[in-house]
Amino acid sequence: MTAALLEVEGISKSFPGVRALHEVQFSLHSGEVLVLVGENGAGKSTLMKILSGIYQRDTGSIRVDGQEVEIPGPAAAQALGISIIHQEMNLMPDLSVAQNIYIGREPRKGPFLDERGLNRKAQQLLDDLGIKLDAKQRVGDLTVAKQQMVEIAKALSFDARVLIMDEPTSALTDTEVETLIGLIESLKAKGTGIVYISHRMEELKRLADRVTVLRDGEYIGTLERDEIDVPTIIEMMVGRHLDEGARPKASEHLRDEVVLRVTGLSTRQLLRDVSFELHRGEILGFAGLMGAGRTETARAIIGADPRSAGTIEVNGKQVSIKQPADAVRHGIGYLSEDRKRLGLMLEQSVTFNTALASMGTFTGPLGVVQQGKARTTAERYVKDLRTRTPSTEQVVKLLSGGNQQKVVIAKWLARDCDILIFDEPTRGIDVGAKEEIYRLLQKLAAEGKSIIVISSELPEVLRLAHRIVVMANGRVTGTLANEDASQAKIMEFATHLVADEQGAA
Amino acid sequence: MRFSKRTALVAGAATFALALAGCSGGGAPATSGEPEAGGDGETLQIALVSKGFQHQFWQAVRTGAEEAAEELGVEVTFEGPAAETEIDAQLQMLQAAIDRGPDAIGYAALDPQACIPLYEAAESAGIPIVEFDAGCESEYGQNLAATDSMAAGALAAQNMAELIGGEGQVGIVGHSQINSTGVERRDGFVEEIEANYPDIEIVDIQYGDGDHLRSADIAKAMIAAHPDLVGLYGTNEGSAIGIVNAVTELGLPAGELTIVGFDSGAAQVDAIRNGVMAGAITQDPIGIGRTVVENAVAAINGEELDDFTDTGSYWYDAENLEDPEIAAVLYE
Amino acid sequence: MSQTTQSPADAPSDEAVAKERGARAALWRKGLQQGLAFGTLVVLLLFFSIASNNFFTWSNISGILLATAVIGILALGTTFVITTGGIDLSIGTGMTLAAVMTGIVAVNLGLPLIFGVLAGIATGALMGLINGINVAYLKLPPFIATLAMMMVAQGLALVISGVRPIYFSGVPGFKDIALGTLIPSLPNAVLIMFILAAVAYFLLSKTVFGRYTVAIGSNEEATRLSGVNTNRWLVTIYTVAGVFTGIAGVVLAARLDSAQPQLGVGYELQAIAAVIIGGTSLLGGRGSIVGTLIGALIMSVLINGLRIMSIQTEWQNVVVGVVIAIAVFADSLRNRRGL
């Protein structure tokens, strides 16, 4: 057998106080897809950052075509033909698609940029890849999914021999995922080696030639194509058995007490006559395609965006919510999909974040913050929610995605919110932690909280929600009881093929 | 690694600073008189807290003070804030001067009221205060050695009126609508015109903070707005130079517009010599500096002082520029 | 109804709506950025022309242009820095230090004028270089780094000049740099400003330098991960801004035919205001040279017009302040719409 395209061996990396990677290995051959899985905090991102030259390894070796190499910086990685699509969007919103793709490698005419050549080249690349985008469009005006496609085009533009994709499909719709998988197939045919990080087991089954599993910074094992089996992989990842498939029933919860009733909610931009009810102890799922208006509904309810019509009743009484502070006063907490930007102060501690929304509770006479009381509360929620953090004084930035989400939840629980709106609660969170978040939401609902879950992942909605509200084009196109719902049925409503609106089942 | 990089940079910056300083014409020393004079009984210490030090005027005051200090065998320190708006910085300087415990303090108040508590502090410390240029509304301060600015403004008005033949439109480019010299030089001028020259109209008064560039732009706008304008009065050096620059930039023939300035300085003296400016009022900053030091020594010796010493203001133009008594009060 | 449930993204309305909305947002933003500033300028010109017969004369217009030159040149340079999401507070006093250095070399040392001019520009570049190193490598926040430089420059200008103005009366031809007329009845200072605006325009929109300026302001980390040496470019950007500061210093000294060491404080804020009025975002990622030029003209037209109308100085400040607030509000409107 010829030398592997990319081979890493015995890689270890420590940060002050944390061992991120310990003796990790994998190898990648040309023309194959290696899927790398592991819970958040398992060390995948650190490994990727070492390969892309952002971090330097402590020990171990990296070989490309059998030759040992050093990767001191991003430029060196590119020179070796290693390209990375990062999990976080790494685009310049103010530049065009073409300008983003060829940043750092602009074609020039003398001292000036060759803008026309740049656009031609980028358009050619997009067309070749089958990505339907105008190279001259400004990236900031694109949807998240389209931005993701730009990222992919950019990574592929390097004529990369090794392409590392870190959760490339987390924001894509099903068709776009198909497009991406098509892309990957054609790249494989050309001999590109692909390291694919994903939490979606369906994709894993379709794509993987081999699967390498990491856990807690250690190498657990590699499965060859014929050994790949989802339950085995999940067990390797989390070291315990998971019960998927358990779906709640609408009839299970108390259904009489309506805690939130939204009637005729409209906004100038998108929403038209959105109405629904949320019952005590219920998890209400919101499904729909990107741009259907789910997040917009949540924002309009909490007063983050102006409403043009509609009423909101909390516990049977009509309330006036003009700004998020009003919503919080009425016990409605909104957990944004963009945790890092809108949900957390990343540079601050767990305690700081937990106490942030309810400072009144932790403020003594003269406005002095009662640090001890805040810490006690934070510690309680760390225990309740099983947040994995060395201490409540840990800076939130250093926690994994799932644990960050728990801190956000703690923040709203501390504020005594009875109605919690979760927008994509498990985005960027790995399978094991997802299940934990699901159980947590169910526990909260069982304790009497009322929960709205906005999710783009249909299995997630089916796994969690008692009832499901489906939206399309700013309207509610259907409301289904869980036992009446299926992925196909939800998609019908989401693509607006079923016009009649069903009432609460 | 990082540390050494930073160190290198700091070193580099310091080198840069030194290299630039090396080009300097040499900063004037902040103190004068006998250095290291030792004990209190030997040499009298006088701390002067001025309204500024960058401006030519204050440098001339300082020159006068240092001359007097030399003659009287006392030691003076001279300091002032960077801009005449920095009332707070000046008060801190006064506070520091009181804390140092000199034998007397000479003070030119930027704000007549803010200084009152510090005067009380000086009184309890037993340090006499004599005032120059502008006084503080406290009983404790002794003798104000200053130009009578109202009289100086009126003197400017009389000369302007004479030069334009007692009629026509004039404008004023002021340097401040707040501080007392700006207000009084303007009011002295305005009141004199209103009282004695009914055919002269003051069509506009604007303020350029004594900034040469801004004053020039203001003067140009005034000339554009009032085509019949015959005269412009600038209430300090920067304002007057601004007017001169405006006229030069517009290419108006020298003397077509009658410009009356205030204070001296090389540029203003040049403008008067070549006829662009008709003339200007000068104070006697060197005299102010001398007087305040003399008064300070007198106050230390317990002598009784008058409330006010008018150090005088003089009209000068191309005719009398070279007269010894005028040349003596002009500064470059 | 008979369609299959697959291919959701082909649902035509969804796609079309999003696209249309994006296009509308882009148009709205562009309209505001270019149109608002230019419209304001035209409205101001019309208003003052009607309000005063003496406003729209060539002599006054040329006066306005000349009054714009120094602030305009400073604003052009600092547009780059602000586009990166940074700020440069050292341009006002830095300009003064450059003017003083020109005077030291051309007057005190008596070297040929060209060396004086080069010394002024080099001084500006050197300050920009130090600002850039402090921001890029020492990771000082731009506000702090340039605030420090502002004070250093102010102090050095006083020290080096011996707290005295330096007069260029003995240097023939120096004044012509600002006040000569290569193009009849257009002062050279204005010509220099327009030439520099053209240079800045090409730099920002046609060169790699400009591309990285926008990229860094848009997402510095992403730019770095793309293999661009962002630190080196930041240093370059601040240095280029410093060159503009140096040129502004030379033009200022030429116009006053002297280097006034106490001048300069407050000029940086006027220049920054001009940049913001022109539609460059303080958050970075969006810069417009044409906008900056228009912004600088708006400032000086406004001030000149109010002076022509003999409005009290105090009220002039109020009006200018309100205009800046409106401009920044428009900026925030843009950011609310865009992403």
UniProtKB/TrEMBL annotation, chain A:
ABC transporter domain mapped to chain residues: 6-241, 254-498
Mode of membrane association: Peripheral membrane protein
Biological process (GO), any one: monosaccharide transmembrane transport
Classification via InterPro entries: AAA+_ATPase (IPR003593), ABC_carbohydrate_import_ATPase (IPR050107), ABC_transporter-like_ATP-bd (IPR003439), ABC_transporter-like_CS (IPR017871), P-loop_NTPase (IPR027417)
Subcellular location: Cell inner membrane; Cell membrane
CDD domains: ABC_Carb_Monos_I (cd03216), ABC_Carb_Monos_II (cd03215)
Organism, as annotated: Agrococcus sediminis
SMART domains: AAA (SM00382)
Example GO molecular function: ATP hydrolysis activity
Biological classification of the source: Bacteria, Bacillati, Actinomycetota, Actinomycetes, Micrococcales
GO CC aspect terms: plasma membrane
Name the UniProt record assigns to this protein: Sugar ABC transporter ATP-binding protein
Signal peptide coordinates: none
PANTHER family per UniProt: CARBOHYDRATE TRANSPORT ATP-BINDING PROTEIN MG119-RELATED (PTHR43790), D-ALLOSE IMPORT ATP-BINDING PROTEIN ALSA-RELATED (PTHR43790:SF3)
Pfam families: ABC_tran (PF00005)
Keyword entries, A-Z: ATP-binding, Cell membrane, Membrane, Nucleotide-binding, Repeat, Sugar transport, Translocase, Transport
UniProtKB/TrEMBL annotation, chain B:
Keywords: Signal
An example molecular function term from Gene Ontology annotations: carbohydrate binding
Domain (Periplasmic binding protein): residue spans on this chain: 46-304
Entries under Pfam families matching the protein: Peripla_BP_4
Signal peptide as annotated in the record: 1-21
InterPro entries (alphabetical): Peripla_BP_I, SBP_2_dom
Gene Ontology annotations for the cellular component aspect, listed alphabetically: cell envelope
Taxonomic superkingdom: Bacteria
Family annotation (CDD domains): PBP1_ABC_sugar_binding-like
Protein's cellular compartments: Cell envelope
Main localization category: other
Family: Belongs to the bacterial solute-binding protein 2 family.
PANTHER family xref list: D-ALLOSE-BINDING PERIPLASMIC PROTEIN-RELATED
Name under which the protein is recorded: ABC transporter substrate-binding protein
Organism this protein belongs to: Agrococcus sediminis
Classification of source organism: Bacteria, Bacillati, Actinomycetota, Actinomycetes, Micrococcales
From TrEMBL, chain C:
Any one of the GO CC terms: plasma membrane
Transmembrane segments: 36-55, 61-82, 144-166, 186-204, 233-253, 265-283, 290-309, 315-333
Xref: InterPro entries: ABC_transp_permease (IPR001851)
Membrane topology classification: Multi-pass membrane protein
Subcellular location: Cell membrane
Main location: membrane
The UniProt record lists the keyword Cell membrane: yes
Keywords in alphabetical order: Cell membrane, Membrane, Transmembrane, Transmembrane helix
GO molecular function: transmembrane transporter activity
Protein name: ABC transporter permease
